[in-house]
Design goal:
The chain is α+β, with helices and mostly antiparallel strands. Helices cover 53% and strands 16% of the residues. The chain is built from 7 helices and 6 strands, in the order αααααββααββββ. Helix 3 (55-73) runs antiparallel to helix 4 (78-101) and helix 4 packs across helix 5 (103-110).
Length: 193
């Protein structure tokens, strides 16, 4: 009975077959199984490497995709390849746990943010180190702070995941519009801290 089940699975997956001889059904079944295993692995990895990623997370995504592809197209032994994918997720999880408990290891594995603006002044050495142009910075300011004036920034960092974070200066005036109900007047008040 077990031998018949194994033979059925072996035929369905075309285990040990030349990749060029895989049929459409073999590829579809392999893709379905690899998708389900990949989904399970991502869930076990707590989705960490599919959101905004550091290089540490992105490398796992690339490697996992490459390894799982070889299981679908038959360039590697099917179950060994799935096992290798599981090992990659386990290694990633172990490194994530180590970096959680060790700030030194966290910096080694994930890097550290670089300050690129301080008190409205661009830090050009840091911009160069991170290979950011002024145009990249202005775009990030518009996207993340809703303005493009560097002088309005207290601090800005090029984060480990490639994003630019912005801390605006507190002394930037805020504008409050107050409408008078009975009239057509608009009063504009500038608020400063």
């Amino acid at each position: 009975m077990f031998e018949a089940i194994y033979q059925f699975i072996s035929d369905l997956l075309a285990l040990g077959a030349d990749p060029k001889s895989l049929g459409v059904v073999n590829i579809i079944v392999r893709a379905l199984i690899v998708y389900l295993v990949g989904l399970l692995l991502v869930r076990l990895g707590k989705n960490r490497f599919v959101g905004k990623s550091t290089a540490f997370d992105a490398i796992l995504g690339f490697m996992l995709g490459t390894v799982l592809t070889s299981a679908i197209i038959g360039t590697g032994p099917f179950f060994i390849v799935l096992g290798a994918a599981a090992i990659l997720v386990i290694i990633h999880w172990v490194f994530a746990a180590i970096t959680f408990y060790s700030s030194r290891m966290d910096t080694i594995v994930k890097g550290q943010p670089g300050k690129i603006i301080e008190d409205g002044e661009i830090i050009w050495d840091s911009m160069n180190d991170n290979k950011l142009t002024k145009e990249d910075l202005i775009e990030a300011l518009r996207r993340n702070a809703s303005f493009d004036d560097v002088s309005r920034v207290k601090e800005s960092y090029f984060e480990r995941n490639g994003d630019v974070s912005v801390i605006p200066k507190d002394d930037v005036p805020r504008i409050l519009d107050v409408k008078v109900e009975d009239g057509v007047q608009t009063i504009q008040i500038k608020l400063t801290n």
